[in-house]
Write a structure and sequence with these properties.
The protein is α+β, with helices and mostly antiparallel strands. The protein contains five helices and 19 strands.
């Protein structure tokens, strides 16, 4: 499978993991997420080490994951803490565990070499966990397509003119845009200005100052598949800080080679206490992702599978996504070269 394993991937939003185990497939591996005795998240392979029952079918009791088949209890490290069927220490029975960390409203998993799992390497999404500065709503979309196609879609925002005219797009943006693809260390970005256009349906919820706006869209990728869109609008020819900022997080976790967990969040730095505005903006963004992007990306996946079509590059966004694809391939090749040989 063409995945980077030595990286942090989001397994679930924090609010989704409460008093029950949550099953999630990451890079083709079945995992189960639950909270231990102190509320700390643990992530195990979703396979009981006794009889291979999915642990996610069980329950959580006093911070232990209880297998539904024989009542065996495992802690967040996968160590058996109670086995009703044996006398003496139950600890020799263990499930496979994965490094886990909770940051920025999400629970993250490291599916690679556990000795390399430094939580400091989790991409910084702190602005979406800063209620004093930003009002944030979080969402999730399941996409039946390879994660690289979702990255392609996010790096090339020129498609918004055509695919999202009634949500986040602005007619005329593709022709007027000023775009550059840049790299700074491990970060690859496509930075774009859409000058002097009517605001999109999203920003019409709040913008009344001028009939047209300048819009900036700085989309950045960080390994392995974590993207951040710093987006804002301002009056034409005005500085960015004079306008409204509506950043969004796009956190992609490959489920399999042809399916992706798409965790996303949208935030704003204005009218923070207005829940009605939050609901309206969330609905617009959710429609753009779930009803507009998702069908196109999934149709592309199906078409590539049945025709063998090869992608071609024409836009500046394509240049950015090509840079990302090459970096992903480079990292996968390095991991394979460092892996111990079989036998």
């Amino acid at each position: 499978m063409s995945f980077i394993r030595n990286a942090w991937y989001m397994a679930a939003w924090s609010h989704a993991v409460t008093d029950k185990p949550v099953a999630v497939t990451v890079l083709g591996d079945p995992l189960v997420v639950f909270r231990g005795t102190d509320g700390t998240a643990g992530i195990l392979l979703d396979v009981c080490p006794h009889r291979a029952v999915p642990l996610s079918m069980g329950t959580v009791s006093h911070g232990h994951l209880v297998c539904p088949y024989h009542g065996i209890e495992l802690d967040t490290a996968g160590v058996c803490r109670k086995n009703p069927h044996v006398q003496g220490s139950p600890e020799r029975l263990r499930a496979q565990s994965f490094p886990a960390a909770e940051r920025f409203g999400g629970i993250w998993v490291w599916p690679g070499d556990a000795t390399l799992a430094d939580p400091a390497r989790i991409p910084d999404y702190r602005l979406f966990d800063s209620p004093a500065e930003f009002s944030t709503r979080r969402g999730y979309t399941h996409v039946q397509a390879n994660y690289r196609l979702v990255i392609d879609n996010l790096m090339d925002l020129a498609h918004a003119d055509y695919l999202h005219p009634g949500t986040v797009g602005q007619p005329g943006a593709a022709e007027a845009q000023q775009t550059s693809a840049v790299r700074d260390g491990e970060v690859i970005a496509v930075n774009t200005i859409w000058p002097d256009l009517p605001p999109s349906a999203l920003h019409r919820q709040a913008w009344t100052r001028t009939p047209t706006v300048d819009k900036y869209l700085d989309m950045s990728w960080r390994p392995a598949s974590n993207l951040l869109l710093d987006l804002g609008i301002m009056a034409p020819a005005s500085p960015r800080e004079s306008g409204l900022r509506t950043p969004s997080a796009h956190i992609l976790t490959p489920e399999t080679e042809r399916s992706t967990h798409y965790f996303w969040a949208v935030a704003r730095d204005f009218d923070l206490g207005n829940d009605t505005l939050s609901d309206r903006m969330f609905a617009i963004v959710d429609r753009a992702f779930s009803q507009e992007d998702k069908p196109i990306i999934e149709a592309t996946q199906r078409n590539m599978e049945r025709t063998g079509a090869i992608l071609t590059n024409f836009t500046k966004g394509d240049a950015g996504s090509t840079m990302v694809r090459r970096e992903i391939d480079r990292r996968i090749a390095l991991e394979r070269a460092d892996a111990p040989s079989a036998g």
